[in-house]
Amino acid sequence: MAYDYIIVGGGAAGCVLANRLSADPALKVLLLEAGGGDWNPLFRMPAGFAKMTKGVASWGWSTVPQKHLNGRVIWYTQAKVIGGGSTINAQLYTRGNRRDYDAWASEAGCEGWSYREVLPYFVRSEDNQRLVNAYHGYGGPLGVSYPVNPPPISFAFLRAAQEAGIPFNFDFNGAKQDGIGHYQLSTRNAERSSTSSAFLKPAQSRKNLTVRLHAQTLRVEIENGCAVGVTVAHGSGIETLRAEREVIVSCGAIGSPRLLQLSGLGPADALKAAGVAVVRDLSNVGSNLQDHLDLYAISECTGDHTYDRVAQPHRTVWAGIEYLLFKTGPVTSTLFETGGFWYADKQARSPDIQFHLGLGSGIEAGVTQMQNPGVTLNSAFLRPRSRGTVRLASSDPKAAPLIDPNYWADPYDRECALKGLRLAREILRQPALKPFVLGERLPGDDLNTDEELEKYAYRSCKTDHHPAGTCAMGSGPEAVVTPDLKLRGIDGLRVVDASVMPFVPSCNTNAPTIMVAEKASDIILGKQPLPPANV
Fold it and tell me: Could you give the CA distance from residue 377 to residue 437 in angstroms, rounded to a whole number?
């Protein structure tokens, strides 16, 4: 069977593309997703995020041992469900700093991707509950709102951060990113607004759009230097599907380079080592992997100020009833709805540390659960200089890839990460939090030297789930894709997802990925770009 466009990957970008491309009834569009549907109620509940990093709807991958983290292997959650990361993430709607995108244009040669040029695509997708101005809009598919009912400890944290010298900021996505505040969330009416619910579901009734779940793409088919379709495992069979115009790979920063390499598109030596026949030697496919590494401090609370004890059966039942009847209570919380952006390097061009206040302990996979109620403060260094890789372990499409973020390969990353951890500890010790916090339990008051904190980081650090850059766009010969997202050297093949970002944005990556897909849809359809913002 033939389609005009085959989109491989029904994640954050793929669902946006499926909506925008199929809006033209003359185009026949196919969306392929290896995972299943988002029918589980946990996907709709904001607090359902607590289950997601622990294996729900994920591929079950981990990193290779990290050379600069004392051999640590880190659980690496990658979504395997329609909506991708937008279906299982913490729903933080952050866009990064304008200088992130200006660097895409000026340093990577990505013409058309400066901040003023991408801002209209952020705004187009947005249905903001409160804001409409030069930076925000309403009426778009994606619900964006503020937390429904933050607990008192959240407000105490805001005061504590200000006591530590970080100013309050009502809108991290507006004129200025610096500061502390409540995050905007990709939620609407106290429910998750994933790209599946926001973009795909409203379009699924279109006769020209076909969505196939549980369909793993094994390879892109290349004939005479042109992508002509894909081979897919679906159920017990294997079939090849034809694309008359383009194949669009949207499998994420890990999945996209993996699929390209399985198709013989990548570094020749690495492909040969994995037993894959080389179709085209593209040396940087799977290189330039960037990610935000998270360090955290946990303090014990003076009482039930967070959501730790909601896990008790009777409290879980009541919280569920409260949510279903009134859309209030603990289930409305994303559990990481407060935080902000500040500086580890005082000479940095813009904030390089991001804080996430966790309303409990043990919320994410690998994070310690306290015996008594606790509060967690994550700190992530946002602009790593270290670069990693994604490579194939073998030619078997079922084999997990070799994911090597190469964390802390550059000592600057370690230096800034530890400064961020120290700042997190300082905030948790401020007077405003004294009524809520008994004291620090991790790392613990007895760990203070850089060497002691490094060892603590080796055993406790985790990914912030923000991989990017592995099919980076640019104007030079080292770029994997051009600024219009075409794969170099192969016709009829584009990549559209976080992998094309030359530098990881200084924020959570869901909103930037949606923006990339919004802009890509106009490029693919040959539309004039939206006028640059006047900011």
Answer: 12
Residue whose C-alpha is closest to residue 186's, from 149, 140, 143: 143
d(CA 522, CA 533): 17
Per-residue buried b or exposed e for 342-366, using 16+ beta carbons within 10 Å of the residue's own CB: bbbeeebebbbbbbbbbbbbbbbbe
The residues pairing with 457 across neighbouring beta strands, listed in sequence order, are none
Q: CATH class for domain 1-44+78-130+193-286+466-528?
A: alpha beta
CA 33 to chain centre: 18
Peptide bond into 443 cis (omega under 30): yes
For 326, other C-beta atoms within 10 Å of its C-beta total 10
Backbone φ and ψ of 247, nearest 5° = -100, 130
Token output for 92: 């933080």
The one-letter code for the residue type at 40 is N
Nearest CA to 241 out of 64, 401, 28 is that of 28
Q: How many helices (H) and strands (E) does the chain have?
A: 14, 24
Picking from 358, 348, 258, the residue whose alpha carbon sits closest to that of residue 307 is 358
CA distance 165 to 163: 5
CA–CA separation, 331 vs 478, rounded Å? 46
Q: What is the pLDDT of residues 159-203, one digit of tens each?
A: 999 999 999 999 999 999 999 999 999 999 999 999 999 999 999
> What's the CA gap between 211 and 149, in Å, rounded?
36
482 contacts 475 by C-beta, under 8 angstroms = yes
Cβ burial 421-456 (10 Å sphere, 16+ → b, else e) = bbbbbebbbbebbeebbeebbbbeeeeeeeeebbeb
Element (H, E) at 238: strand 237-249
Opening angle at CA 414, ends 468 and 90, nearest 5: 45
User: 499, 256 in Cβ contact below 8 A?
Assistant: yes
Which residue intervals of 147-202 are DSSP H helices? Answer: 152-163, 195
User: Could you give the count of Cα atoms lying within 13 Å of 74 in the half-sphere of its Cβ?
Assistant: 29
Cβ burial, residue 325 (10 Å; 0-12/13-18/19+): exposed
- DSSP letter for 249, please: E
Q: Which of these is catalytic: 136, 182, 305, 466?
A: 466
What is the separation of C-alpha 224 from the centre of its chain, rounded to a whole number of angstroms?
Answer: 35
Q: Determine the longest span between alpha carbons in the chain, in angstroms.
A: 69
3-state helix, strand, coil in the chain (%, to 5): 30, 25, 45
Cα torsion 342, 166, 93, 359: sign: positive
Is residue 136 part of the annotated active site? The answer reads no
- Per residue in 429-487, pLDDT (tens digit) is 999 999 999 999 999 999 999 999 999 999 999 999 999 999 999 998 899 999 999 99
CB 462 within 8 A of CB 366: yes
pTM over 0.70: yes
